[in-house]
Amino acid sequence: AARAKAEAAARARAKAESINKAKAFKGFSLFKRGGSDSSAAEAALAAEDTDPARVHAAVTFQTHWRRHKAQMVLADLKANEAVVRVQAALRGHLARRRLVAALKGRGIDIERAE
């Protein structure tokens, strides 16, 4: 009986680990809201921690931590978006400058609107 219990706990830990690896690989949803996390509850129960208050506390803590991580990722994406816009504006400016230079080289004069 003890061996079966230990094997079940090992399977639950392995399952929780594979779920966490899959989440880390795929990323996580930026729109996930708070609530119970079954993998955290399974991991807590697999570790023979059956106190419901501790399981609830672990799930709540992990939910808040994941929300915090998602907010940090979103902030990085927004900051990166500003960089991309500046790069696009600069590349457009340089492309127009090269076009004007190429046309002038062929003897075509372009009036610039100022």
Describe the fold and architecture.
The chain contains three helices and no strands. α1 (2-26) runs antiparallel to α2. It is rod-shaped and about 90 Å long. The longest helix has 54 residues, at 52-105. The chain has 114 residues and is an all-alpha fold.
Give a brief rundown of this model.
By secondary structure, the protein is mainly alpha-helical. It is built from three helices and no strands.
For the residues shown, what is the average pLDDT?
A: 77
- Topology, number of strands: 0
> Helical amount among residues, as a percent range?
over 70%
Computed Rg = 27 Å
Query: What order do the helices and strands follow?
Result: HHH
**Low-confidence parts lasting 5 or more residues at pLDDT below 50?**
28-36
Distance between the termini: 85 Å
Brief descriptors of the model:
114 residues, mainly alpha, 3 helices, 77% helix, rod-shaped
How is the topology of this model organized?
Elements: H1 2-26, H2 38-46, H3 52-105
Helix pairs in contact: 1-2, 2-3
